Amino acid sequence: MSDTVTFHVPDMTCGHCEKTVRGALADVLPDAEVSIDLSTHSVSVTGNAQTAEEAIRGAGYSPEKAA
Fold first, then answer.
1. How many CB atoms are closer than 10 A to CB 62?
2. What is 20-55 written as a DSSP string?
3. Is 63 buried (19+), middle (13-18) or exposed (0-12) by CB count in 10 A?
4. Which string of b and e fits 28-56 if b means at least 16 CB within 10 Å?
5. Is 2:46 a contact under the CB 8 Å cutoff?
6. Total structural domains in the chain?
7. Residue 49 backbone dihedrals phi, psi, to 5 degrees
8. What is the mean pLDDT of residues 14-29?
């Protein structure tokens, strides 16, 4: 079973942002489970945390690992 990591992504503010982040994660972690909550700017994803963080950054956002 893969670990789940949660990121706070303060600059993810709309549906387009959500779609962009989902697409970026799907490209690098195609089997990952992704959960996004726009109201709290959070992204939870299963799989490699570093890969996920790099994908979100590559899409133009600023992920911060949630505590």
1. 12
2. HHHHHHHHH-TT--EEEETTTTEEEEES-HHHHHHH
3. buried
4. ebeebebebeeeebbbbbbbbbeebbebb
5. yes
6. 1
7. -65, -40
8. 97
For 1-16, how does the pLDDT look when each residue is reduced to its tens digit (9 = 90+)?
Answer: 469 999 999 999 999 9
Q: Are 9 and 41 within 8 A, CB to CB?
A: yes
Burial category of 8 from C-beta neighbours within 10 Å (exposed 0-12, middle 13-18, buried 19 and up)? middle
Q: 40 is in which domain, residue-wise?
A: 4-65
Please give the C-alpha separations between residue 27 and each of 20, 30, 37, 40, 66, in angstroms, as whole numbers: 11, 6, 20, 24, 22
Provide φ and ψ at 40, rounded to 5°: -110, 0
Average pLDDT over residues 38-56: 97
Q: Please give the single-letter amino acid code of residue 24.
A: A
CATH of the domain at 51: 3.30.70.100
